Amino acid sequence: xxxxxxxxxxxxxxxxxxxxxxxxxxxxxxxxxxxxxxxxxxxxxxxxxxxxxxxxxxxxxxxxxxxxxxxxxxxxxxxxxxxxxxxxxxxxxxxxxxxxxxxxxxxxxxxxxxxxxxxxxxxxxxxxxxxxxxxxxxxxxxxxxxxxxxxxxxxxxxxxxxxxxxxxxxxxxxxxxxxxxxxxxxxxxxxxxxxxxxxxxxxxxxxxxxxxxxxxxxxxxxxxxxxxxxxxxxxxxxxxxxxxxxxxxxxxxxx
Length: 255
Known about the structure:
Radius of gyration: 17 Å
CATH topology: Rossmann fold
Mean pLDDT: 94
Strand order of the largest sheet: 3-2-1-4-5-6-7
Number of domains: 1
Number of helices: 8
Number of strands: 7
Distance between the termini: 43 Å
Shape: globular
CATH superfamily: NAD(P)-binding Rossmann-like Domain
Low-confidence stretches: none
Order of helices and strands: EHEHEHEHEHEHHHE
CATH architecture: 3-Layer(aba) Sandwich
CATH class: Alpha Beta
Largest sheet: 7 strands, parallel
Structural class: alpha/beta
Strand content: 15-25%
């Protein structure tokens, strides 16, 4: 029988309607959590909720754009009204852009990346921290990237935002450790998702080139990131906070 480490827990997953977020929502639900999925695409979000319920789990979808402060505030008001608490959160909602070097990037591209990938996480944490504190502790996991610990040519803005997520994660972890709120980050490498597939569709040779840089010899699976998120939120990681966990199949080991 599958272990149910999150029985009777309320867990938020932003961007939980596809890719890593979807895999994580399904994994939390399979281990007993009531999952709140917050994302923009309502049809996909409702599909994930239906899948969870068909498997005997409990979930709901709340349409939310994390770049909009009013929508983020409404999300947490709804969680408070419907569930009265929050135990864990995975801040996963994010976006990417086409490859663009620093001097060629536009202000619009900068704002799009930073509003979603960085400001969106900060906005969510503003509400998550007091709610989790009120419950006597819990865990927040932020989704950074392998590009939060290294850089790739042409992805300077994306990398800057992902580096900043780690700074925010560590600073927040220091602030709330004494309240038993742990704040960590995952740094996925190259994962097989719909977002990455768009890149491969434009440049089929890119997939083989990426795999060559991964010692394990393949792309990662969303479920493998989900496993790390659940571990960080579990009692098994009760002494881990302010830490980034790189999940990249060995990518980055080579100089």
